[in-house]
Write a structure and sequence with these properties.
The structure holds 2 protein chains of 2 kinds. By secondary structure, chain A is an alpha/beta fold. In chain A, 24% of the residues lie in helices and 25% in strands. Chain A has a 4-stranded mixed sheet. In chain A, helix 3 links the parallel strand 2 and strand 3. In chain B, helix 1 packs antiparallel against helix 2, helix 2 runs antiparallel to helix 5 and helix 4 crosses helix 6. Helices cover 63% and strands 0% of the residues of chain B. Classes of the chains: A alpha/beta, B mainly alpha. Bound molecules: zinc ion.
Chain lengths: 157, 247
């Protein structure tokens, strides 16, 4: 029988459809796994933002990965408590974001006070351009040193 | 009773989201277009959480889409404020700001609900609502304390919409029972805080506080303005023309 560890291993390869450099594990949205039998498994996931359109795609990708691994009955349920915040992002996930060109969340909700490092040149002299970005989780910043605009993964809590 | 309360909460988010979605691709500038569309998305997400929970308490066993998209107009319980038309960017911002201040206070109280699921939904939604409030409040200040024209447009919007927020603080009979049981928020207790916050913002934005104290009412009882039919016609078209369609 497939063990829970093996299921986590399979899930650790499923990526976020909007930021494919992050796995669902890095994002911190997988809350529980339960192997019921050889062909039945239960996965509990949580939403990032309530309206995030990636949620349904994530569930579909999880289903596909587990089906390939031999499960035929795959129950995916959504849990909303404890609520997801950017504190659930793994340290590895934060590093991956930076390499991908997205500044990871700062420690404060304030966009003015946040020290957001330019993922291109590392300068801390950056400014907010737009409070909302290409997805719910991002805002748009610009570096005042290298002048590159970049995405910032907003602190959310 | 809880079912009706959940619909009332969900309908406010749903109808405001629908109104904002009309602006997708029509915002005054790219950043504001993206902002309004993102807020619309958050609101529909919050509405979905409430509708999904409501399906568990529905005697008629309707699904989420049926609850959101195929009820007759008089079964929607949203306040009149959220169905008011977009008119111009000033009206969009004032309507949003009035609602965000309420939404923030309401969810801040609802996180303490004795109904655990409702408290969890409120906790999740509140994080997003704080962000909306910051956005709409900043635009109140920027446009109010902006040019003579932007100030005038904001003042017109405030004067037009001033009669609507009062309804947010009315208690239905069901709400009174649920509030006593610690499940619902007694919204009548939020009015003073709302007023204080709004008056401070208007003052800082160099906008005048309208004198009127009378307010429009009806939405929470299912009696809507003439705008509602048009909103529903567009919103419900797909489910009515092709019942039970999914994406
Ligand atoms: Zn830079």
């Amino acid at each position: 029988m497939t063990t829970i560890e093996q299921v986590y291993e399979i899930l650790s390869k499923v990526t976020d459809p909007e930021i494919p450099v992050l796995t669902l594990d890095d994002l911190g949205v997988i809350r529980d796994v339960n192997v019921i039998s050889d062909d039945e498994v239960e996965v509990k996931i949580t939403l990032t933002y309530s309206g995030c359109p990636a949620t349904d795609v994530m569930a579909g990708d999880i289903r596909a990965a587990l089906f390939v691994a031999g499960f035929t009955k795959i129950n995916i349920t959504h849990v909303i408590s404890p609520a997801w915040t950017t504190d659930w992002l793994s340290p590895k996930g934060r590093e991956k974001l930076k390499k991908y060109g997205i500044a990871p969340p700062a420690a404060t909700l304030s966009l003015q006070e946040a020290i957001v490092e330019c993922p291109q040149c590392g300068s801390k002299q950056t400014k907010i351009i737009s409070e909302f970005g290409s997805t719910s989780c991002k805002a748009l910043f610009q570096c005042e040193n290298c002048l590159e605009p970049f995405d910032y993964f907003k602190c959310h809590r | 009773m809880l079912f009706k309360y959940l619909l009332q909460l969900a309908d406010n988010q749903l109808i405001l989201s629908q109104r904002l979605s009309e602006l997708c691709g029509h915002g005054p500038a790219l950043e504001q277009d993206i902002a309004i569309t993102n807020i619309s998305l958050d609101l529909i997400g919050q509405a979905r959480l409430l509708f999904q929970y409501a399906t568990k308490h529905d005697d008629q066993k309707r699904n989420e889409d049926q609850l959101a998209l195929v009820r007759p107009e008089n079964e929607y319980r949203n306040v009149l404020l959220v169905e008011q038309p977009n008119v111009d960017f000033a009206h969009v911002i004032v309507r949003q700001y009035f609602y965000d201040e309420f939404n923030f206070l309401n969810y801040s109280a609802l996180v303490n609900s004795k109904d655990e699921e409702l408290a969890a939904i409120a906790t999740k939604s509140l994080m997003e609502v704080k962000y909306h409030l910051r956005f709409s409040r900043n635009w109140m200040l920027r446009l109010g304390d902006g040019t003579a024209i932007s100030n005038q447009k904001m003042q017109d919007a405030i004067d037009d919409l001033w009669a609507y927020p009062g309804e947010l603080f009315e208690m239905t009979a069901d709400e009174q029972v649920l509030a006593k049981a610690g499940v619902a928020v007694d919204v009548s207790t939020l009015q003073e805080n709302w007023k204080e916050a709004v008056l401070a913002t208007l003052q800082e934005a160099t906008l005048a506080i309208p004198e009127g104290t009378w307010h429009q009412t009806g939405g929470k009882k299912g009696i809507h303005s003439e705008y509602m039919g048009h909103i529903l016609a567009e919103m419900q078209f797909l489910q009515r023309a092709y019942p039970n369609q999914t994406w």
